[in-house]
Specification:
Alpha-Beta Plaits; two-stranded antiparallel sheet; 6 strands; about 40% strand
């Protein structure tokens, strides 16, 4: 395992599989992430416009690098159907060298 400061994990929720697959394809074709996992079965509870809401969603988990984040966020915000899409970035502090090299070069 190696330490890293340049790799990131991005989480984005989507309303359905069609939107999830479309965003994943756009992200990968634009080489903005090396991998996008689509995780089904997310139930989101949140405040929106003064009331508590609950929706079934999917979670996109994207592996990318710090240098791609601005372009990735711009694309997600532009192409996402939500007015305020989730775009959360977490640092990847360590991982297998071979995998992190793949993320960086993909």
């Amino acid at each position: 395992m190696v330490k890293t400061e340049r790799h990131r994990l991005v989480m984005v929720t989507v309303p359905n599989i069609t939107v999830g697959r479309r965003l994943a394809k756009l992200v990968l074709e634009g080489q903005l992430a090396a991998c996008v996992n689509i995780v089904p079965g997310v139930e989101s509870h949140y405040w929106w416009q003064g009331k508590v809401c609950r929706d079934k969603e999917l979670l996109l988990v994207m592996k990318t690098t710090q240098t791609r984040l601005k372009r990735l966020e711009k694309m997600v915000v532009e192409k996402h159907p939500y007015v305020t899409p989730e775009f959360i970035v977490l640092p990847i502090t360590a991982g297998s060298k071979k995998y992190l090299d793949w993320v960086r070069t993909s």
